[in-house]
């Protein structure tokens, strides 16, 4: 993957349902689906249905300003649905140094096991 802002990724195909995923939550702007390579008993990705990355989100557009709150709220809905409200983690890997591999903004929602801190 590259850090080419706004370029298509595999997540566009997941949004379009051209490739299958196990959807946990969906609304007009947000999609949540199970990670194909789970790092915990619950590992769900929460993504906006548009493609701008975290570091490209502008300040002016309400859509962009509001999406982070919507994603975080969807993460809470996912945690509730998955029964992990007692303990879960929300992570955004932004950029190669942080191990981002898919360049479409996404929150990882992880739970169902004891977490460690600090992360590696
Ligand atoms: P990143 O490393 O960019 O923060 O996370 C990308 C995540 O997307 C990884 O955890 C990876 O397992 C997941 N992933 C990559 N391709 C697919 C896919 O085709 N389907 C699903 N469900 N998850 C994917």
UniProtKB/TrEMBL annotation:
Q: Give the residues annotated as active site.
A: 106 (tele-amp-histidine intermediate)
The UniProt keywords, alphabetically, are: Signal
| Domain spans labelled HIT | 10-120
Question: Could you state a single Gene Ontology molecular function term?
Answer: adenylylsulfatase activity
Top-level taxon of origin: Eukaryota
Q: Where is this motif: Histidine triad motif?
A: 104-108
Q: What is this protein called?
A: Histidine triadprotein, zinc-binding protein
Positions spanned in the full protein? 64 to 183 of 183
């Amino acid at each position: 993957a590259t850090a080419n802002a706004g370029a298509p990724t595999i997540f566009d195909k997941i949004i379009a349902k051209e490739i299958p995923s196990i959807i946990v939550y969906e609304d007009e702007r947000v999609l949540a689906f199970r990670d194909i390579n789970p790092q915990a008993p619950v590992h769900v990705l929460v993504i906006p249905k548009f493609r701008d990355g975290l570091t490209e989100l502008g300040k002016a557009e309400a859509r962009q300003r509001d999406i982070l709150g919507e994603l975080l709220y969807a993460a809470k809905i996912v945690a509730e649905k998955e029964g992990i409200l007692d303990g879960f983690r929300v992570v955004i890997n932004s950029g190669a140094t942080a191990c981002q591999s898919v360049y479409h903004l996404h929150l990882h929602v992880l739970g169902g096991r004891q977490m460690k801190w600090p992360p590696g």
